[in-house]
Write a structure and sequence with these properties.
- With about 110 residues, the protein is mainly alpha-helical.
- Helices cover about 60% and strands about 0% of the residues.
- This is Non-specific lipid-transfer protein.
């Protein structure tokens, strides 16, 4: 779940736009909550997971502040999972859900860049 949010946050950060963040960590958590099983066990993400990933991407695509906030929320959630998260699932989540970020995401992503 946290990794999914991280992936989406990274995706959102690639588009430049400044301003105050309107997104909250509870929104991020709700959007990517369905991805926890995929991020820990691998396999294929559920439809609910991919819907959440796409929703999060759509909510943050036009605001750099929202992308940074979402990224930080995802990293915070990911820390709760510790080593149980599969790095390959984290980096592969956007593509598995049909979202093209144009770059690779990881748990070590710098949310400010």
């Amino acid at each position: 779940m946290a990794v999914n949010v991280l992936a989406m946050a990274c995706l959102l950060m690639m588009l430049p736009n400044l301003g105050d963040a309107a997104i909250s960590c509870s929104t991020v958590t709700n959007d990517i909550g369905g991805c926890a099983t995929y991020l820990v066990n691998g396999g294929s993400p559920s439809g609910a997971c991919c819907s959440g990933v796409k929703s999060l991407y759509g909510s943050t695509v036009s605001s750099r502040a929202d992308r940074i906030t979402a990224c930080n929320c995802i990293k915070s959630l990911a820390s709760n999972f510790g080593s149980s998260l599969k790095s390959s699932s984290v980096s592969g989540l956007p593509k598995a859900c049909g979202v093209n970020l144009g770059y690779t995401i990881s748990l070590s992503t710098n949310c400010a860049s």
